[in-house]
Structure formats: structure tokens, C-alpha cells
Amino acid sequence: MTPTELVQERLLSLEDLSRRRCGWRTYSQKTVFTNGVFDLIHPGHLTYLAEAAGLGQRLIVGVNSDESVKRLKGDGRPVMPLAARMQLLAGLFYVDGVIAFDEDTPLELIKALKPDVLVKGGDYTEDTIVGAPEVRSWGGEVEVLTFVDGYSSTGIIERLRG
User: Fold this and answer.
1) Tens place of pLDDT for every residue, the chain, 162 residues?
2) 3-161 is classed in which CATH architecture?
3) Are 106 and 35 in contact (CB under 8 A)?
């Protein structure tokens, strides 16, 4: 498989993801889920995603659609369109799948996927993570990873706009 084909293989629909998730369960592979905008991917994102991947055997990343980002972050965002953000994430060797969602939160996606581990960054607490009660209800874990100081897509965009 070529690198381009590998990236394309990781861009998933909910149907594709559900099918793969069944296969991973068959082999007792722990699935980790995280989500975000991932506009202008930076070293903080890379560190965070690598740590998240280390919590299981499969890492799935949910990405807010362009419409969702506009509602959450305002006009002028995202800087990079959904297809580009997803392709960049799918190109990371420790990411097993990337899926978009249109809602403001990934709750419905989390309920459909039923990950073994739900992960967010240190700018969250377990009480503020969307989907945490649901993940715990089926015996899953909720993890808050250390926030990497000095990196923020919003901060980078503000500096560029000067």
C-alpha cells in the first residue's frame, strides 16, 4: 500500500469505523478516542496524540466539521478546511482512523463508537469532558493528558493575523 493509500484508508465514515471497531474488539485491541478542531497542527497536538495512542492499540480522532468550527470559534475559522485537517491527522503513524462530526460535541459519535478510553488535554477536567459519563457506564476509562504549554492554534492564528 502506498503512503497516499494508507492515508485514504484511515479517513473513515461511521459505518467503516463501526466495522473496524468490531474487528478490533475480536482481537481485544483497546480503542482510544479523542476529538478536536486540529486547525494548524502544531507540536502540542503531536505530543498529545502520541500520548493518547500509548493508552491503547488503536487511536481514533474525531474532527469538528467546518460548520461546527465556525459555530464554536466564529467567522474566519477554521483556517484549514476539514479535508486538509483530516488528511494531516491520517498521515500520522500513530493515528488509526479519522472521522468528522457536524455536531458541536462528539457525544453521538462517542456513543456509537463506545471507545475503551476517552482522552482530552489538560485544558479539560474529567467533569467537563463530553461523553465521560457514557464511557464510564460501559466500563471505559477517561484520561486527561498533560497540556503542552506554548502551543495553541488560536494563539498562532492571532499572531499571524497580527
Assistant:
1) 898 999 999 999 999 999 999 999 999 999 999 999 999 888 889 999 999 999 999 999 999 999 999 999 999 899 999 999 999 999 999 999 999 999 999 999 999 999 999 999 988 889 999 999 999 999 999 999 987 666 665 665 566 667
2) 3-Layer(aba) Sandwich (3.40)
3) yes
Tell me the torsion sign for CA atoms 78, 82, 83, 89. positive
Alpha carbons 66 and 78: distance in angstroms, whole number? 6
Using DSSP, state whether 77 is helix, strand or coil.
coil
Distance CA 59, CA 40 (A): 20
C-alpha cell at 153: 492554534
Long-range residue pairs from 124-130, CB within 8 A, at least 24 positions apart, any chain: 130/105, 130/106
- Regarding pTM above 0.90, the answer is yes
Q: How many residues does the chain have?
A: 162
